[in-house]
Amino acid sequence: MHGWLARDDSLSWTIHSVDVSPATKTRREEYHYVINTLNALGDKLHVLDAATGYTHTYHMLPYIAAACGHCVSAVDINPLTMNMPAHPLVERQVMDIGHLDYADNHFDAVVCVSVLEHMNRDHAARVIIELLRVTKGPIVLTADNAVWLPSMLAGKADIGAAWAFLEPHLDPPVYALDAIKLPP
Predict the structure, then answer these.
(1) CA 132 – CA 34 distance, rounded (Å)
(2) Fewer Cβ in 10 A, N or C end of the chain?
(3) What is the pLDDT along the chain (184 residues), one digit of tens a residue?
């Protein structure tokens, strides 16, 4: 995982044939982590990208997942998300990730990259419960300076892996984890 942190060549900014802007700092590490986790689960997953984003340089995860053959429902509360390029395996919707309009266990996996740190802890806890509700598989989360992230999943999910991405020019570090929800 940390091999990408040391590389700064042009190839390290292309992930499964999708260019990611060098301006994104840790995004390439987060995207590699998420995609490797998804691909280890299987082929052609139905994935929710929660709070997917809406800029052509930073928010490329749905296209990377689609390049790997996954079908992605990309949702964001900002209507600008609808301006992102069309892709046959990416469906975009404007939606609040704290109140998702999907049935229980609808997705094979849920990803949420660098979102929770922008919320207060109570809201982030509600979002995690909602993300767990709509997936039958794991949720894959990343958040800046999020030593609190594993404790927020206590009693709700079994954490498969958790660690910090450390980059020399980034302080605080980005924490990443994947977790499987516990049975009711």
Answers:
(1) 16
(2) C
(3) 333 334 444 545 666 677 776 666 667 778 888 998 999 999 999 999 999 989 877 788 999 999 999 999 999 999 999 999 899 999 999 999 999 999 999 999 999 998 998 888 899 999 999 999 999 999 999 888 777 888 888 889 999 877 777 665 556 677 888 899 888 7
Q: Which two tokens stand for residue 31?
A: 């995207």
- d(CA 76, CA 51) in angstroms, rounded, equals 4
- 175 beta partners: 143, 164
Residue type, 47: V
User: What are the residue ranges of helices labelled H in the chain?
Assistant: 3-6, 27-41, 61-67, 121-134, 149-152
